Amino acid sequence: MATLSVANLTKSFGSTKVLREIDLDVGDGEFVVLLGPSGCGKSTLLNIIAGLETVDEGDVRIDGHIVNNVEPKDRNIAMVFQSYALYPAMTVRENILFGLKQRRASKSQMSESLERFSKMLQVDHLLDRKPAQLSGGQRQRVAMGRALVREPHIFLFDEPLSNLDAKLRVEMRQEIRKLHDRLGTTMIYVTHDQVEAMSLATRIAVMNEGIIQQIGTPLEIYDTPNCVFVADFVGAPSINLVGGKLHNGDDGWSFVADHHEEGVRVPLGGYVFTTAPEAGHGIILGIRPEHISVQKHSEQAQPFELEPTLVELTGYDQNVTFDFFGSEIVGRMPRTTKVEVGRPMPLFLDINEASLFDRATGKRI
Amino acid sequence: MTAADLGRLGALERSTALKRTLLRWLLFLVLGVFALYYLAPMYVMVVTSLKSMAEIRQGNLLTLPAEINFEAWWIAWNGRGYEAGDVFLRPYFWNSVKMVVPAVIASTFLGALNGYALTKWRFKGDNVVFLLFLFGCFIPYQAILLPMARTLGVLGISNSVNGLILVHTVYGLSFTTLFFRNFFVSVPNEIVKAARIDGAGFFKIFFKVLLPISGPIIVVTVIWQFTNIWNDFLFGSSFSFGDSAPVQVALNNMVLTSTSVKQYNVDMAAAFIAGLPTLLVYILAGKYFIRGLTAGSVKG
Question: How far apart are CA A300 and CA A271, in angstroms?
Fold first, then answer.
């Protein structure tokens, strides 16, 4: 059990700033996911927490103690890597016990831990095999077993599922979740996969270009993204972003799309502004595909006639691309909804659920 | 498809099959010719070494010996038993063994350690250090003769097997470092990170995690170093003389300094003996050599 706190952390490689003034507090037993595109600094941050990279400026604290200069092995952490990083020359048993051996654990403790965790991860029948003789999923389990036996206070995961095929990825994702539920250990998990982040995290920190853009529960991140980047990065299919202006009329605030100066305005009746709105201000309207539907879900939902230009079946759902006054927007609806390309259909835009961003700064307004 | 199309395909099928067979035979023919070309000198050496001098004087290089006679091999190895001026290989052969084994082990081990440090424990200026090692590969033997002679003199190990061990270890270090560095680059860094978190230190990781998977590259390095050091003549003749000379120097002395009639059969036998160890190393470890040269990344 442990807390982690990163304060004002800066890291450069040569002249490239990889991390800029990162602040992150992880409470005991939390599952925090660092989410971001490749090159955003999330793996570097994890390596710094692990002690595998040095800190340029700022502090890393574990349980309140500054560990900037503490060796990885003394930080009471364990890490699972994307490439599994098993020791190729050792058997599964030796791999799992290597860490305990370095710590001169007693024989009885070793066999006890081995038994317990190899059973838990269902690798107890593989103990005498070499990593090369294991499948990807089995390797991942062994890698987790190796991390688990040491009973660390903080678990670090560096994109552990990226090398697995889609089906196995879902399975292992669920197992990691169950593991967290069972052990209650603090976990920090790096991924670029927003579905993993959503399904695993108690809190998500979305990173881009070396800064944490937003940190919050999965629902906060999904429903009220604080900037265009977060809105766009989280969610599949992506959020629809339409550029336009704010308009203040008799009926209150509304949105005017770029390509349709005089045309249809989208009234923003139910929208809760975070800053005082300003008429004529350039903004971006963000609306998620599932908030475009044929049914009227709320009082404020706005009716439109839109023309479908493309229909993509995804299984249970279908993603339909519409022409929205010159720009394209995608709606997600059950496949039972009748859609015909080229024939305009009545739709409702659930403005309550939309997000508005300042066009210049990209910040939520 | 029309009938004409089908006919054309049929003809193509037959002609390509024929072409393939012909090309195969041509390939084997060319390979066979080259094999003969390379093996011919060895054949002449073996045949000549088994002949008596009288038979050699009759002049046909390629004929098989009338009777097989190992006397020349015996003389090359043990000498004729003269009091003075009798040069034979046995003591020098063991000099070479005493030189090669420690030098190969030391240079391979240090090269492995260098390669490991240069790839897995990056430090400021490590690329410059590696560049200098690379540069070392291109320094010709002749260029280091004088400085090395001075160094050996200062260390007090000139004209000794130990001196030659040092020379070969130092000279070989550039190559062994290069080999191991290129091999360890293909080993994922994450393995080392995992071991660090598990609590293993610099040497523990080297011995327990990386060396056990370095088999192929160790074989390559050992073969390379063994061949170079065993076959070296320049360092041997420059830094040693008399009793401490390695076998290649002794071979030279034996063949070139005899004042009497040239004993071609003894010369051939001696040359063969001097070349035998490298031949053996290749036969025993050859398949690992190719495997090691082409070794890719290690799957963890």
Answer: 9
